[in-house]
Amino acid sequence: MIPRLTRAGVRAVAHHLGALAQLLAACMAAPTLVAVASSEWEPAARYLLSSGLCLVVGAALRFAALEKPRLDRTQAIAVTGIAWVFLSLLAAVPLWLSGHFGGYFDALFECVSALTTTGVSLAQDLPHLSNADNTWRFALQLVGGLGFIVVALSLGLFGRRIDASLYTSEGRSERFIPQVAETARFIARTTLAIVVGAAVALGFLCLAAGMETGRAALHGVWLSIAAFATGGFAPMPSSVTYYHSFAIEIVLMVTMLLGALNFALLLGARRGRIDEIGRDSEVRTGAIWIAAMTALFTVAACGSATFSDTSTLLRQGTFTIISTLTTTGFQTLSTNQLMQVLPSGALLVLVLLMAVGGCAGSTAGGLKLHRLSIVAKSISVTCRKALVPESARMATEYHHFGRRTLDDNVSKEAMTVFVLFTATCALGALAGVAHGQDGLTAIVDSVAMTSNGGVFSGIVSCDMPASLEFVYLVQMLAGRLEFVTFAAIVIEIVATIVPHRRMPHGQRSASAPHAGGDRSRP
């Protein structure tokens, strides 16, 4: 039987959504302060108005349950799933009022792209977007990369009585510190340390490149956030190409790789467990995968005009591979070079890198390297079982933060996500073809949306049809929530809204057992 939300459950969900709305209002302090510091009074007024709206809506929802309720698993999934849409609706208000978007739906798409760290922008006249609006776009990427729930837990927003379901429902399955709240705080502290360090380095490099101090500082912060959150937004339409700096590219590559690593691996490195990292199956799978894809990309790209010499191949090729495999989406190649000049074989390699993505428990999108490892091991086990007697028992072990045995539940979870990911990419590509795209373009954009990858064909713009925009919006949300949570919340909402059909008294269904057997509950 599909669980349904009761009235008490709806009130509990509303209470927690209200708390998250108030957290969003607090986040709007960042663009407000930047607006005041930059003497941008109109944006400052917009963000004050929007934060006030969030506070009012949040307070109203929290009154749905005066005492802070404890969530069960069904309610936790509802909070997580609804929050990503609900908070995007609120976050879009100041961007919509800026006049840089074709309408509210375009601003909503921008916010979903930011929160899911996809990185495609529908902003018009991006170079003249205010500092406050840019700060808001990047702040959303930071919060989205970590996850609303992780940020809320790290701040103690939900109190001490925390159910682990609230943490795992946002796509994070691993608790490398026993307490959920402590895990969330470690993630937040690590993110802050890396982002600040990268921002200082990038700020100095921008200053050395000739930017004025304030602008260099903002660009440093924005780029560091987008790199570690593997979000891919850039303050200029030409992305990283705008800076023409190899040093900036190096800092960004290091930051992107750190963002694509499992936070548990970062904790292990901090504790000096380097040997543990080397034995991890996800790390080994990633090393093999990256080496193989890099070799294929090099062979495919060598003959193109884009990479005509070794230095260009090493610089732009390496940056493109790292940006793609971390699902960041920063570009040093123009859209025309990517789709028209780059050989189709090299483009296919980038699509595969984007589809798999980074490590589990990181800010990166995609299927994740851990699932790739599990799927490969599951296929190997299935093939080996076909060669041995049925009575034989086989156990496959792997090392992932300790020695583990591959069981059916782990294999089923990985296979389920793999099938849902593939189906979502296929449906998105079909939608693109139905809207007039050619097959290759539709596949690239669909995989980018589903994996929250950020490398696009250029077709995704403010001029695309609203129906295709909606399809891509759903794909971004499904990919960020790792499909199972997204599917579960859709089923849960439908089951709650659709009235439960009761059979007339005394009538049994055709499938009910005969006399003498177990009877169904009324």
From TrEMBL:
<keyword id="KW-0406">Ion transport</keyword>
<dbReference type="GO" id="GO:0030001">
    <property type="term" value="P:metal ion transport"/>
</dbReference>
<feature type="transmembrane region" description="Helical">
    <location>
        <begin position="242"/>
        <end position="267"/>
    </location>
</feature>
<feature type="transmembrane region" description="Helical">
    <location>
        <begin position="287"/>
        <end position="307"/>
    </location>
</feature>
<comment type="similarity">
    <text>Belongs to the TrkH potassium transport family.</text>
</comment>
<feature type="transmembrane region" description="Helical">
    <location>
        <begin position="414"/>
        <end position="434"/>
    </location>
</feature>
<dbReference type="Pfam" id="PF02386">
    <property type="entry name" value="TrkH"/>
</dbReference>
<dbReference type="InterPro" id="IPR003445">
    <property type="entry name" value="Cat_transpt"/>
</dbReference>
<feature type="transmembrane region" description="Helical">
    <location>
        <begin position="45"/>
        <end position="64"/>
    </location>
</feature>
<keyword id="KW-0813">Transport</keyword>
<dbReference type="GO" id="GO:0005886">
    <property type="term" value="C:plasma membrane"/>
</dbReference>
<feature type="transmembrane region" description="Helical">
    <location>
        <begin position="135"/>
        <end position="158"/>
    </location>
</feature>
<keyword id="KW-1003">Cell membrane</keyword>
<feature type="transmembrane region" description="Helical">
    <location>
        <begin position="346"/>
        <end position="367"/>
    </location>
</feature>
<keyword id="KW-0472">Membrane</keyword>
<feature type="transmembrane region" description="Helical">
    <location>
        <begin position="477"/>
        <end position="498"/>
    </location>
</feature>
<dbReference type="GO" id="GO:0008324">
    <property type="term" value="F:monoatomic cation transmembrane transporter activity"/>
</dbReference>
<feature type="transmembrane region" description="Helical">
    <location>
        <begin position="76"/>
        <end position="97"/>
    </location>
</feature>
<keyword id="KW-1133">Transmembrane helix</keyword>
<protein>
    <submittedName>
        <fullName>TrkH family potassium uptake protein</fullName>
    </submittedName>
</protein>
<keyword id="KW-0812">Transmembrane</keyword>
<feature type="transmembrane region" description="Helical">
    <location>
        <begin position="186"/>
        <end position="209"/>
    </location>
</feature>
